[in-house]
Specification:
The complex is a heterodimer of chains A (170) and B (280).
Chain A lengths: L2 H25 L13 H31 L6 H20 L4 H26 L4 H16 L2 H14 L7
Helix pairs in contact in A: 1-2, 1-6, 2-3, 2-4, 2-6, 3-4, 4-5
Chain B lengths: L1 H29 L5 H32 L1 H44 L4 E10 L7 E4 L12 E3 L5 E8 L4 E5 L6 E6 L4 E6 L2 H4 L4 E4 L12 E4 L11 E10 L6 E7 L8 E7 L5
Antiparallel strand pairs in B: 1-2, 1-12, 2-5, 3-4, 3-12, 4-5, 6-7, 6-9, 7-8, 8-11, 9-10, 10-11
Classes of the chains: A mainly alpha (170), B alpha+beta (280).
């Protein structure tokens, strides 16, 4: 893969991320589902990782992590690493354990959302002494409602994957 | 035929004169009503006239349809554009009216609180996570905003505190965010306590007033203000009202659930307090 191919490919993936970001940052907060705002950036990371593999997923996760620092007030720098690891793990899991298809993406998305919420819950539980039960309830709702958007996110990234040159696939 | 007129010309002239006299006399006698001849002619010619008129009208319509269709379509398009422009003007006028009302309210607040200085800011986004309650403003350090400044609505109700500032944007932690802590004061009893966000109450759009003095009684509806004791935020800003008083699970202390006065979900324009006279 030449440098040009590389730039074009990830440029297209970055463009595909724009509607997801717009949806999560500007549209869905005004229309929460059952009082919960869906989380889409981890789904995008996982979808890219499932299609592009561990290395591509980790790289894409790094970029999404940077974006999440602007979007999530509690992200800090840690989310950059977390999203990169999320991409790496989803890529590895679907390459060697699960399948590189929608169901693999759905399962990895559930895991990614679970990890993200676990990090949030643990930090709040230990550093701010927040009550555990309300956080677990919110995490559960958030996970299920966010997973409803997996088909949409996966379909978008699959569409991109099928259009980028085949020689650029990992 | 030629001979008839030659032989009876005088007779015909006399008949014509007589007829004209009859018409003139009857017209004069009937006072505005048509004379019998004219009336008869009118009666007979009306259906013909109507028919001709209809034919002419139909022809005109067809002509317009054939030759003026493009002209009419252009006119219709222009009207549609004009309508859209008028609608846009109406929307802008409505926005201007709303802004005017907000500024009028603020003017009232400025008169009430001359110790405060404000900077206007627009709410550009509401927080996208379920774990925090934030608003993003379209103004930042270039407009004189800084972290820690209090944000109010046009009625002077506290919205939150600026948490993070960029060059042309800033993030506001609203008063229901679980990270928030500031001094509160119950207006009726003048009792100082601590206003703090709570994760469970945040989901319900409320916050809590903790460390209530033991000897004070609180009532539903009691107004809660900022105490300003820390000197970091102005005193006397309306935070909300007490909804209920609860006892801590330990049974040792009480806290009040406070419902914010500001409508945090539907804010479009807010005012940042850029400077104030400290009570300390």
């Amino acid at each position: 893969m030449t440098r040009h191919d590389f730039l074009v490919k990830w440029g297209v993936y970055a463009l595909a991320l724009l509607p997801i970001w717009f949806l999560e940052a500007y549209l869905l907060p005004h229309f929460p589902i059952l009082g919960v705002k869906p989380v889409l950036l981890p789904l995008a990371t996982v979808a890219a990782a499932v299609l592009e593999g561990a290395a591509g997923g980790a790289g894409f996760g790094l970029g999404v992590g940077l974006l999440s620092c602007f979007l999530y007030p509690d992200a800090n720098g840690g989310f950059v690493l977390l999203f990169a690891l999320m991409g790496l793990a989803a890529g590895l899991l679907t390459q060697y354990v699960l399948r590189q298809d929608f169901w693999g993406c759905l399962l990895c998305s559930a895991l990614a959302l679970g990890v993200l919420d676990a990090v949030r819950i643990l930090s709040r539980f230990f550093f701010r002494a927040e009550a555990l039960y309300p956080m677990l309830r919110l995490a559960g709702m958030e996970l299920w409602i966010s997973l409803l958007f997996t088909p949409l996110v996966y379909a978008l990234f699959l569409w991109v994957f099928r259009r980028v040159p085949k020689r650029t696939h990992f | 035929m030629k001979d008839f007129f030659r032989n009876n010309g005088v007779l015909l002239l006399i008949i014509a004169v007589l007829l004209s006299l009859i018409v003139a006399v009857t017209s004069a006698l009937l006072g505005g009503f048509a004379d019998p001849f004219s009336n008869l002619l009118g009666i007979l010619s009306t259906p013909i006239r109507n028919g001709i008129n209809s034919v002419v009208g139909w022809t005109e319509d067809r002509y317009q349809a054939l030759f003026r269709q493009s002209e009419l379509e252009a006119e219709y398009e222009q009207l549609k554009k004009d309508y859209a422009e008028l609608e846009q003007t109406l929307r802008e006028a409505q926005q201007a009216i709303d802004e005017n009302e907000r500024l009028r309210n603020l003017l009232g607040l400025k008169e009430e609180r001359p110790d405060l200085e404000f900077a206007e800011a627009t709410v550009t986004a509401v927080g996208s996570t379920n774990w925090d309650s934030t608003l993003t403003l379209g103004q930042g350090s270039s407009s004189g905003l800084a972290a820690g400044q209090a944000v109010i609505d046009e009625y002077g109700n506290l919205v939150g505190l600026i948490d993070e500032v960029g060059t042309n944007w800033s993030r506001v932690m609203t008063i229901i965010d679980s990270d928030l802590e500031l001094g509160g004061l119950v207006a009726r009893t003048d009792s100082a306590a601590l206003l703090e966000g709570n994760f469970e109450l945040m989901g319900q759009g409320k916050l809590r007033l903790s460390y209530l003095p033991e000897n004070s009684e609180f009532m539903t509806g009691d107004q809660v203000l900022t105490s300003g004791l820390s000197g970091l935020y102005p005193a006397g800003l309306v935070v909300g009202h007490i909804e209920e008083v609860r006892t801590d699970p330990s049974g040792m202390t009480r806290y009040a659930v406070v419902a914010p006065e500001a409508d945090l979900q539907n804010l479009r324009q807010v005012f940042v307090i850029t400077s104030f006279a400290s009570t300390q």
